[in-house]
Amino acid sequence: MFVKTVETKNQQRNSDDRRWPGIEIRNIKKAVEHPDIRGEQHYTIRSGQNQKEVKNAYFDFGFALVARIVSFAHRFSEIRDTMNILGIETSCDETSGAVLCNGNVRSNVVSSQLCHTSFGGVVPELASREHERLIVSIVDAAVTEANITKNDLDVIAATAGPGLIGAVMVGLCFAQGLAYALDVPFVPVNHIEAHIFSPFINEGSGHTAPEGAYVSLTVSGGHTLLSVVAPDLSYKVIGRTLDDAAGEAFDKTGKMLGLPYPAGPVIDKLAEKGDPNFHLFPRALTSQSQSSKSWHGNFDFSFSGLKTSVLTWLQKQSPEFIERHKADIAASIQAAIVGVLVEKSIAAARSRNVMAVSIAGGVSANSSLRKAMKEACDKEGIALHLPSVTYSTDNAAMIATLAGLKLSRGMKAERNYNVAPYASFAAAAKKA
Ligand code: ADP
Ligand code: MG
Q1: Ligand 1 pocket, residue 254 CB under 6 Å
Q2: Which of 393, 394, 398 to mutate to test the pocket of ligand 1 (most atoms within 8 A of CB)?
Q3: Model's pTM, two decimal places?
Q4: How far is the CA of 150 from the CAs of 322, 324, 430, in angstroms?
Q5: How many helices (H) and strands (E) does the chain have?
Q6: Pairwise CA distance, residues 400 & 84, whole Å
Q7: Which of 42, 55, 108, 384 could form a disulfide with 1 if both were Cys (CB 3.0 to 4.6 A apart)?
Q8: Can you name the residues that pair with 156 across neighbouring β-strands?
Q9: Which of 40-49, 63-72, 102-111, 250-259 has the highest average model confidence (pLDDT)?
Q10: Which numbered ligand comes closest to the C-alpha of 110?
Q11: Residue of 363, 370, 371, 399 to mutate, ligand 1, most atoms within 8 A of C-beta
């Protein structure tokens, strides 16, 4: 296909052609009759979305409308009825593709890499290679499951960070290549932001974001953040971990107990049969901590002390004792982590006068956290928003959803990624 863009702005009207105001007919003629392209079957001309007369003129010339190009600033609401968004997520050890049609999740294919299990943590280079091996089939599966073809896609979105650099690059480059090939726009998505809005992923459940501001607790393997989210979806981070993330605290203390990676879900299961009061592990920067005077209004977290405390305490116990009380120890570790997360979230909601709290990220799958946060919120008369467990850990549905939310609210996607083909496309789209 030969592509030729004809500028239609700031051009003089051709006095002979009053049917087509505001359009330089000579330019179209020049394009169509240009010796380089004479005899070609296809010409692509782009016009502004609302330039009705201009579009009619193109129809008169025999052009057919084949695609809508969405610039970064384009409002989703204008094209909601035709919007199919492909989301791609490869920031860590999940390869995922999802399709969002008209704001609803149609498919969400997630492959969790098993190649890291024997190492007790994610090996970055292995993760990148595994993403590369799987990405084509995962995206194919997501598109097929959504009952559409790649040509029906209107927007491609992918995690642009934060994450393991090699892993992010696989998804980001694949997504931009696909967007370029399909001639549709690309939206880079911040992975943590996508987690923040994951409680509002729509599967037809009608679950919508609170009307007012709310406090969001994002707890994953790599991050622990407390933010206040405003109704316009802007958010302010008011606290974060000073060292380990909550998921990391689960994984590392679980490893000390001899549990496989990732230990979070294993501790969750084991703790069901254990006594959470078996041993009191420290809860840093809370009302229970040594320096409790300074905890008020401090929404930061610290989990490295818990890790040291578990290690030194375990070193003093016999292997038989640890084996016999594994469930009790797991429940006690979990109680320490969950206690901190709940106390800080409720304190943040109180201090900011908001009436809703949400939890997101891998650790939001934890059954004890869900239960304790619900009880605390009920006591305070605060609404709690939780993602379904499927959307707690990394998934592409949240990437596609955030891309859709951004476009629907007229938000501009981030521009700080730097890949040539679509950087130049974005600049061109802005001009049109
Ligand atoms: P990341 O993006 O950092 O990889 P994810 O959002 O995928 O993180 O979450 C993974 C983390 O969530 C791991 O640390 C894992 O142990 C933890 N996790 C998953 N399920 C549970 C659970 N049921 N209880 C506690 N932690 C959990
Ligand atoms: Mg994550």
Answers
A1: no
A2: 393
A3: 0.75
A4: 54, 55, 25
A5: 13, 12
A6: 9
A7: 42
A8: 86, 186
A9: 250-259
A10: 1
A11: 363
